[in-house]
C-alpha cells in the first residue's frame, strides 16, 4: 500500500511539473465566445461606433469603423492592448492631405466613457465645439488632448469629473472666464495646457499643491495678478517640485518674481515674456534655464 502511495505521488508530481505550464497557458487564453485574445471587446466596439455616429467625417477618416469589421483594434486610430484587447489609445488628430486640412466635426459622444482602460485620447486639431457633461470621468490616468478645436465658453462642468487625468491639453480653443478652482481635485495631473484662450483672473491658489505637475502652460490669456502664492506653494513640494516647464508669457501678470522660484530644481523652461513682472532672482539657474523673460529678470541668464 505504501509503495502504491509513493508511486501515485511521483506520478502526480510528474504531471504538475510537465503539464503545469500548459494548464496556466490554457487559463490565460480562456476567453468568452465573443472575444479572442488581443481582439477588441464588443462593448468598446459599440462605443466607438456611437462616437462615429455623432461626428461629421468628410475625409472618410473613420471608414474602417464598421460593424462588419469586427476587430476594432485594427480600426484607424485605435490602439489596443495586445493581450487583453482593451482599447488603450485613440488618436484622431487631424489628417492632412496636400490641399486642405480635414477636420472631424460634431459632438463627442459620452459613450467613450465605456473605454475604461483608455490611457491616451488625442482629438486635437479638429472642430469639436463642446465637451459632453458625462465624459470619461471614471478613466484613470488618462492623457486627453483637445488642442486646437472650437470649444467655447467657460471650462465646462464635465472637467470636474476628470479628476484622475494625467494630462489635459485645451490650448488654442475659445475658452472664457476664470480658471476654476475645481482643478484642486486633480491630484494626478502632470501636464496642464490652457494656452491661447481668453481665460481671465488669477492663477488658482490650489495650483500650488500640484506636486506632480511637470508642465503648466497658461500663455496668451488674460490671467492677471501675481504668482507668488503659486510659486511659494509648489516650491514646498517634497522631496522636490517636479515642475519643468512654466509658460506664463503674454499675460497680464504683475509683481515681483518670488525668491522661492530658486527652489524649483527641475525647472528648465520659463516663459514670462510680455508680462509686467520684475525681479533679479533667476541667477541660481544660470545657463541651465531656457527663459524668455522681461529685461529686469534676464540678469545672470546671459541674455
UniProtKB/TrEMBL annotation:
Residues 44-81 form the Leucine-rich repeat-containing N-terminal plant-type domain. InterPro entries: Leu-rich_rpt, Leu-rich_rpt_typical-subtyp, LRR_dom_sf, LRR_N_plant-typ, RLP23-like. It is a single-pass type I membrane protein. GO terms for cellular component: plasma membrane. It comes from the Eukaryota. It holds the Pfam family LRR_8. Residues 1-25 form the signal peptide. Keywords: Cell membrane, Glycoprotein, Leucine-rich repeat, Membrane, Repeat, Signal, Transmembrane, Transmembrane helix. It is found in: Cell membrane. Belongs to the RLP family. This is Leucine-rich repeat-containing N-terminal plant-type domain-containing protein. It comes from Stephania yunnanensis.
